[in-house]
Amino acid sequence: xxxxxxxxxxxxxxxxxxxxxxxxxxxxxxxxxxxxxxxxxxxxxxxxxxxxxxxxxxxxxxxxxxxxxxxxxxxxxxxxxxxxxxxxxxxxxxxxxxxxxxxxxxxxxxxxxxxxxxxxxxxxxxxxxxxxxxxxxxxxxxxxxxxxxxxxxxxxxxxxxxxxxxxxxxxxxxxxxxxxxxxxxxxxxxxxxxxxxxxxxxxxxxxxxxxxxxxxxxxxxxxxxxxxxxxxxxxxxxxxxxxxxxxxxxxxxxxxxxxxxxxxxxxxxxxxxxxxxxxxxxxxxxxxxxxxxxxxxxxxxxxxxxxxxxxxxxxxxxxxxxxxxxxxxxxxxxxxx
Length: 337
Known about the structure:
Elements: E1 2-3, H1 16-28, E2 44-50, E3 67-73, E4 78-83, E5 87-97, E6 100-107, E7 127-135, E8 138-145, H2 149-156, E9 160-162, H3 173-193, H4 225-241, H5 245-248, H6 254-262, H7 270-280, E10 286-289, E11 294-295, E12 300-309, E13 312-323, E14 326-329, E15 334-335
Parallel strand pairs: 1-11
Antiparallel strand pairs: 2-3, 2-9, 3-4, 4-5, 5-6, 6-7, 7-8, 8-9, 10-12, 11-12, 12-13, 13-14, 13-15
Helix pairs in contact: 1-7
């Protein structure tokens, strides 16, 4: 971790209408869980993202694979394929003989036991055999005998990694909608009952803030910025995969979210910001720190972050602030130099 001369990192108050373009440009071009022991073999919960660029255009049913998946090989011999944004879509059984893993689909709309999309081949594709190798937090599968192209693409496009769940409490969007409706009702009644007032000078513009805690004193405890920011990016990846903006918004500083709302057209609310995020969350993005954390005092930091969708990568420089005792994202980043 390195330090640099102090400067104020301000949140960028971008128009909400431009937010979708910024994020789309960013990604369009390209809690905790129990440790899983290597002694467990293939048993565990595994994660793998499938991007649009991973799927051949002539693969029947291929678009159904796009998203972040959780593949569970359970110790009772059953397995499940779960697309994070819609839930379980295939279930079946598995067995291991040495380094050979046999997977048999039995149920679910994406089961290979069903007739395969775009194929007239009547060959039974319910079972497939793979060679497996486990190293630390990765499980690599190589097809040995496989007649189901969809399952092979899912399991062999890249190594499976240990699954990390999203543990963030959802942003109270429903409460925000109710509050906005109540405010509109009060405003309407006041407009009907109050005569027009004489114009008054506008209030002075508030000092810009990035959402960092006000004090420059070191925060209580021993919160290491590098460890905390790495954990934040892991959580962002996990919550992004849910496709639920209410699970992603809390990972940004509240001041930054307020700036986005304020920079939108009249009547913009956090619900509008969430709607923009919802479309973008369909892309299975992985966030990982790609450079040193540069601190700017005890409550502000900056780091280069690698965004990956399939094999495509982009590096962005992101700002972070310590807000309410936790590190949060303070912007949406700019391309790293």
